[in-house]
Structure formats: structure tokens, C-alpha cells
Amino acid sequence: MKKNLFYLFALICSMSLFTACSDDDDPVYPIEEELAGTYKGTLDIELDGTPMANGMPKNITIAKAGNNIISLELKDFNFMEMNLGTIKLEKCVLKQNGTSYTFAGSQELNLSGIGKCNVDVAGTINNGKAEANLNIDVLQLGQAVKVVYKGTKLTGSESSEAKITAFTIDSELVTEQPVIDEATGTITFKVRDTATNDDLKALKPIFTISEKATVTPASGVAQDFSGGKAVIYTVISENGTVKAYEVSIAGSQSELKFSFEEWETVPGTFLTNEYYSPLPTDLLATSAPGAAYLKLFKVTDLPVFQTDDKKEGESAIKLVTMDTSDKANALVPAITSGSVFTGKFVLNTGDRIASSKFGIAYDKRPVYFRGWYKYTPGAKYIDGSKATKPEEVIEKPDIVDECAIQAVLYEAVDADGKEVILTGHDINTSDYRVAIARLEDGTAKAEYTYFDIPFTFLTGKAYETSKTYKLAIVCSSSKDGDSFMGAGGSTLILDELEVIGESVAAE
After folding, report:
1. Mean pLDDT to the nearest integer, 310-334
2. What is the pTM of this model?
């Protein structure tokens, strides 16, 4: 019994002596205090001596694995569109040389997609900076991958956000500004169908990113989006988190645009005043032809003018509401609002509201109605809807006039195959209407104001390729002018009206 206790005591002592000798032999380095942590840096990669990547952003993690041993981890290692998974070397032996440390290690790893590999690493750590050379022998392929890493240790307080927070392209070729889909990492936009490849090679995206992040390519640099090409933007957060965005054109759109640059003068006759019409007259019409007949009642004013008070180009269109209440009768309305619309004006003395024939043929699905306007309401609002003589006109001092700007897509043919033509009677109520884009704020605007209104499809309605449609753009200096209500002198100036549409393939 005493002999057994002696042997047990001797064994314990010998184990303690071995451990103490081992601790004494292995140097103890301040790994956790100085070396361990995450390093933000870049990789250069070669495959059998051929460069495959340069400056690829990547983080590595160094951790303590012993008194003089560290582990090195490189997560999500990928190149040539192959993700090889995580490379982790468990035992890299440290050696100190002044303030610098060198490390080296070797390990067999089973990497995703390529199988077993022999991985050797050698590197240095000095004053918060790490460099490492990894040699990876891909046994199954008989190829060698060389990786050179350089990075700087993070404090742990750096931001991890790596986002493109806003993205625009300032070009008339872009009909739909870029939309960021954070979940998929994609940014898409649409362009005019008239854009050429040369045009698409010169687009300059302007964008902002997360605070303290960096990005390549830089904002404001022209990129090539021609031929369906995508541009990859890589955002790197302060702490090295990487987010890539693929930017591309999602489709093309057409435009129907009216800039009111060209006009024609329509000579007066013994019945009518001279007036002016914006071109093209096969698409555009105004209320001026009807007002021209007021010459018979010694009215020389006009509701439609070409003006040099423009937003772009040389001219714009000015619509003015005429107060003719002092001459009101069965043929003279108390109010004649200035209006411009797509369609035709065909005077109907028995039904003046039906004189405006709204709409032109349109074979696209409308997406946006856009343009510029300014508006000044007249001083005295009157209701002449039932007036057949001046004393029947009603003043309404509590009402301030508003303008009307809208676009309407409607079915061009009814169930019996007859042409549908909407007028002032039913442009806002007809069941043939399919989609509308209407300016909701018709109040005063002293300066040019931009509107960009998406078309809204009415309940139960959709664009059908089997049907034919008309598009009515209708703008008026008095929103209730078709009911002969408004304020004399109300003035609406319009420029650069356009409807953006998309071609839809037949099912």
C-alpha cells in the first residue's frame, strides 16, 4: 500500500515537472492584448502564376490558440465566381523579433467544391498591421493558388453599414430613375427607346453611401450600360463589411412629348379673330378656335398664346381664362377657359361642351405624365353655368380658381365596334376610361413647378393588348371651365409636357 502511494506521488510530481518545463520552454506573447482581432484589408490572388484578383477587400481574424500560437481565419474565400468556404489555420507558431511578430503554419483542409488542399501560411504582424502569404495546393486539380493579404487591425467600434443610400442618373435619356433593391443587391432603371449604345456608354450615376464607407467605382464617373451590360459597385464599410450592387437597365420606354416650340398663325376672317395654334395640329388642339368666333360679339381677347416665359427651349404655352360675362347669352359663354388637349376642336354651337374631342391613338401602356407649370388664379370667380344673360352670372368671392392638368387613357372602340370619343361631358366620368394621371394640386404656383404623376389604373381595369386605346391630355386654366365656371385672368403656363409609356407584348 505504501509502495502504491509512493508511485502515485512520483507520477504526480513528474507530470507537474513536465508541465512546468513546457511552460518555461514556450514563450508567452501578448496575443489577446495586442495581436488578436479582426483585420481589414485586401487580397491579391494568383492561380498557377496568373493574376486572378487584385485588391479584393477582405477581413481576416486572428485569435489566440496557445501561449505562442495563433489561429488565422479567412471566411467566404472566393474567386472566379467560386466560393471555397472558410480557410482556418488552427496552429500558426509565433516568433518575436523586436516589436514585430512572424508566424507560420501548415494544415490540410477540405475546401468547398475542390476537396482536400494543403495550405501553408507565413506572415508578420507589426503595430496593428498584418501581412500573410498563403499557398494553397489544390490536390485534385493539380493547381496552386497563391494569396497575398495585407490589412490593418480594427478597434471594434467601426461601423458595419455598407449601403448605397441614394442613386440617380441626371440624364434626359433616363425615363425612370434607379430603384435600389437592398434585398437582392440590384439597382435598375429605364431609358428612352431612342437611346443609342453611345448614349448608354456615357451615363454618369451620382450616388451616396453609408457614412465612413468607401465604394468603387466612384460616384460621377461615366459607366457603360450599353448592350445589356451591368456595372458592379462594391461598397466597403468602415469595419470591412462588403456589399456589392449590380446596376443595369431594366427596360426602355417611349415618350410622347410636347414642348410648344412651333406654332402656326390661323388668319382671321369676317367671322373670326386671328389666333395661334401649337404644332402639330394633328395631335394638339386648343379652345382658341371657339373663342375666335366671339369676334361676332366684339370680343377680341384670346384664351391661348405662345409665350417666351418658358422652362426650356424658346417658348411655352399660356392659357388664360376669359371673362365674357358682360356679353353672356345663348351663344356667348360667361367664361371661356384657356385649354390645350390632345384631340380636335370641332365647334358645336348647340353643345359647346361637346366641341372638344379628346384623345389621340396610343399603342403603349402609359406609365408617367410629366411636365412643368406655373399658375396664377384670377381675382373674381364666377359661375356662369346657367347664364344666358349677364344678370344670371353668379359671383362667388369665397372660391379661388384652380387649374386642371391630367392625362386619361381610354378604350377607343366600344363593344359594337364603334369609335369612342370622349368630350367635356364625360372625360372625367366615362366607363371607357382605363387609367388616369391627374395633378391634385391646382393652386397658385408663382414659379415653374415640376410634376411627375404615375398613371393609376381604375378599379377593375387593366391594359389589354387586344384592345385599342386613345390618350387624352387635357389642361385648362380653370378646372371647372368646361362648366363655364372660373375666374377671368386665371393664367396657366405649361412647358415640356410628356407621357412616358411602355410597349407591351401580346400574350
Report:
1. 94
2. 0.77
